[in-house]
Q: What sequence folds into this?
């Protein structure tokens, strides 16, 4: 699945970017691939016909 980044931190220097806009402006990739599916993510409601 593709995951959208909304938080980045560095253990070495203590840098914290705590929202998508900061990550994007820093030039860090805003998406990454991970194993699993959407139902593994907290808050996932699934597709159940709400059009």
A:
């Amino acid at each position: 699945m593709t995951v959208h980044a909304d938080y980045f931190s560095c253990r070495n220097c203590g840098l914290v970017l705590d929202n998508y806009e900061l990550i994007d402006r820093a030039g860090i990739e805003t998406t990454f691939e991970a194993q699993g599916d959407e139902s593994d993510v907290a808050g996932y409601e699934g597709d159940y016909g709400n059009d």
About this structure: The beta strands are 2-4, 8-9, 16-17, 31-33. The mean pLDDT is 82.
